[in-house]
Amino acid sequence: MQTKRTVFQSRVLPYFLLAPQLIITLIFFVWPAAQAIWQSFLRQDPFGLKATFVWFANYTRLLDDPDYLNALGATFVFSVGVTVLSMGLSLMFAVAVNRVLRSGRFYTTLLVWPYAVAPAAAGLLWWFMFNPSVGIIPYLLSSFGYEWNHRLHTGDAMVLIIIAAAWKQISYNFLFFVAGLQSVPQSLSEAAAIDGAGPFKRFWTVVFPLLSPTTFFLAVINITYAMFDTFGIVDATTSGGPSQSTNILVYKVYADGFIGLNLGPSAAQSVILMLIVVVLTVVQFRWIERKVQY
Amino acid sequence: MFKKLSMAAIAVALSATSSLAATEVTWWHAMGGELGKKLEEIAQKFNDSQSDYKVVPVFKGTYPETLTAAIAAFRAGQQPAIVQVFEVGTGTMMAAKGAVYPVYKLMADNKEPWDPKGFLAPVVGYYSDAQGNILSMPFNSSTPIMYYNKDVFQKAGLDPEVAPKTWAELAAMGKKIVDSGAAACGFTLSYAATWVGLENYSAIQNLPYGTLQNGFGGLKTEFKFNGKEQAAFWDNLKKQQDAKVFKYGGPGGGAETAPMFYAQQCAIYMGSSASRAGVINNAKGFKVGFAPMPYDDTVTKEPKNSIIGGATLWTLNGQKNPDVYKGVAKFFTYLSKPEVQADWHQFTGYLPITNAAYELGQKQGYYEKTPGSDIAIKQITRGTPSDNSRGVRFGNLTQIRDLIDQQFETVLSGKKTGQQALDDAAKAGNAVLREFEASNSN
Fold first, then answer.
1. DSSP character for B217?
2. Which of A22, B189, B208, B382 has an alpha carbon within 20 to 30 A of A129's alpha carbon?
3. Which residues 53-112 on chain A approach chain B with CB closer than 8 angstroms?
């Protein structure tokens, strides 16, 4: 790749131009992150009147805490579920839209709409539809003999938050898949067709491998989304229940820190989450960007 | 972290707007809807009654949100003068000695009249320290009572004037209601696993909830709510659920419990006495009966008093302008006036906080005119309170209640027995208590 190099006359100017971004990063990311790290080594009362430095006690206790291990497991199931469901569906939609020429733009607009819905609002929508007493979906399911109740059944609750979170992300994935599909040269598919490959085979052996950069990129983005950006959905639908089955890591940080007022352990959890983001980012930039063949 | 920062920013923005002649007293509260309007009316009337102070009520969301916001604001040095904290947060507030300006001291420092004996004993006992000093200003206290649908009772062939007195009677009547098709479910409970279904159940049946007089005796307390009686009670609720007699309405306050009662799905609803206004407004097309909470005659023949919920007003330390505290004291004096208290109590269904307000209501003939309105008062003042029925006081009780809710859900889904679930809840709860003890003792 070509790199552009600009030479500035003044030494101050480049720093000045960078300053707005740097200041925002420092105030809204570095400073709170540093505070979280500092707090994760403290045991403090809610009002901040007394603090004891406890070294790694908050961390070691987390790893012994069955609830935390449970949250790790729930997060794993949840993020894999969301990623597979939302990417699968959006790939399907993208392939379908890519085949229609004239109305493609119309469908694209419709499919992008959900992305503008705030997570809390999306959560509330699903909460209404799946509400065990007044919701339409439990009502329909009951006519098939299935008694839906995500207040009591852990499986139902997990399915609910996976659907709600995946629905929200379909738009984003869809856009990237459409763009990816359009960059696949038509001639390759045509050549395969001449060699006698059916549409199904053409897709899996020609188009899908060529989409791999988009797929990998989206996989990382979706996992990140499921792990960190779904607080609103969980809060509005299940609040982590029943019996902690949907208490994903990011929700547990909130529940322990803001409801439980246990700031030290909550800070330790956010530091661990921060490390996970770092790892995911490194994976994306170092590994995927290099290994995936264009 | 970001949320905390933004809350601090909002606190700064709010305090920056205060530059009027009268000294402003900010009051963060958690009363939405009708209750919020009434609260604002009280503040407005106080402001109109004098010109030196202006009480500014600010709605901060749910009880936990209000508490969290106040704590975050305190850490940022932008705390309100008064914050309404629910009874579950009492342990947390009491332990925060440097943050709280105890009301008895506030009133004495500002030479305002203060008579602890004027308050209803069960209310004030809840908010006093070991020396008997009242730490926060009682404001809205409630206790659970039973609401029932008289029309459904009639349809099921039951006497609509007779409510079940015991849990056994309730089960029998519930079965009759469901079997006859009068309603889809017999009863539902708000705070099914906590305030109503465990804290009040233990108090009424005179069973210990924790050691050291349910936590009133100090931070070294441990949970005892995993007794065999409570376990049997939870198993019974599971049994009733399987028989469709009991329907669970969600954790915490049970967001779906009251709607199920309003929609006539459930014939009986047990919830706060302060739900009264809401029940009367929403019970369209059927008559509502009011009754005390049932008791368990396999455990006790003499039910104790029920315990309170609701909230009190805490004064926070650290206001830059000392005049603010004078304003707070004046406002509290205004709040304790019998007329103000009686009006609030009669409008909302909360308990009258002072004896004078109760007497005023009696003089006005309010309790005769509005049947069922004194059930809560009678229930909370019956008998002599024991160590088990004075209340519960534990640090981080909000978080512990969540743990108990989760364990209750495992019973309802059939994964654990009542005993296993309560044992696990007590174990997890004790760990939280030890954490609280460690962070609050130096």
1. T
2. B189
3. 67
Q: What is the pLDDT of residues A94-150, one digit of tens each?
A: 988 888 767 878 888 888 888 888 877 888 888 889 888 778 998 899 888 888 888
Whether B251 sits inside 8 A of A52 (CB atoms) is no
Tell me how crowded residue A201 is: count the other CB atoms within 10 A of its CB.
Answer: 13
A40 found inside a domain:
no
Using the Cβ of A132 and the Cβ atoms of chain B, whether some distance falls under 8 Å is answered with yes
- Contacts across the A-B interface (CB distance below 8 Å): 101
Bond prior to A209 in cis (omega within 30° of 0): no
Walk me through the domains of chain B, giving residue ranges and CATH numbers: 2-142+309-364 (3.40.190.10), 144-306+390-440 (3.40.190.10)
Burial of B315 (0-12, 13-18, 19+ CB in 10 A): buried
B438–A259 C-beta distance less than 8 A? no
For residue A282, the distance in angstroms to the closest alpha carbon of chain B comes to 23
Contacts of B234 in chain A (CB under 8 A): none
Taking the C-alpha atoms of residue B120 and residue B138, their distance in angstroms, rounded to an integer, is: 10
**Contacting residues of A for B317, CB less than 8 Å apart:** none
CB contact under 8 A, A261 and B95: no
CA–CA dist A246, A71 (Å, integer): 8
* Chain B environment of A33 (Cβ under 8 Å): 1
B216: helix, coil or strand?
coil
Cα distance between residue A119 and residue A235, in whole Å: 10
Q: Which residues of B touch A (CB under 8 A)?
A: 1-3, 5, 64, 68, 71, 74-75, 92, 95-99, 248-252, 256, 259-260, 263, 265, 396, 398-399, 402, 405-407, 409-410, 412-413, 415, 428, 432, 435, 438-440, 442
Q: Do A113 and A171 meet the contact criterion of CB atoms below 8 Å apart? A: yes
Q: Which residue has the tokens 């306050």?
A: B253
Query: What is the pTM (predicted TM-score) of this model?
Result: 0.81
Instruction: Give me A211's structure tokens.
Output: 């989409």
Looking at chain A, which residue has its C-alpha nearest residue B406? A243
Q: Is the pLDDT of residue B152 over 90?
A: yes
How many Cβ atoms from other residues are within 10 Å of residue A121's Cβ?
13
By C-alpha distance, which of B34, B342, B303, B361 is closest to B146?
B303
pLDDT digits (tens, 9 = 90+) for A21-45: 999 999 999 999 999 999 999 888 8
> A151 and chain B: CB distance < 8 Å anywhere?
yes
Which residues of A fall within a CB distance of 8 Å from B440? 45, 50
In-domain check, residue A221: yes
Average pLDDT over residues A52-80: 90
Q: How many domains does chain A have?
A: 1
Q: What is the CATH number of the domain that holds A201?
A: 1.10.3720.10
Greater confidence (A105 vs A170) lies with A170
pLDDT at A12 over 50: yes
- The interaxial angle of helices B33-49 and B338-348, nearest 10 deg, is 160
Q: Is residue A8 part of a domain?
A: no
Cβ <8 Å between B96 and A49: yes
CB B275 within 8 A of CB B258: yes
DSSP-derived secondary structure for B328-389: HHHHHHHHTSHHHHHHHHHHH-PPPSBHHHHHHHHHHTHHHHSTTTTHHHHHHHSS---TTT
Q: What is the pLDDT of residue A294?
A: 47
Domain that holds residue A141: 66-291
Q: Nearest CB to A262: which of B71, B413, B435?
A: B435
| Contacting residues of A for B412, CB less than 8 Å apart | 152
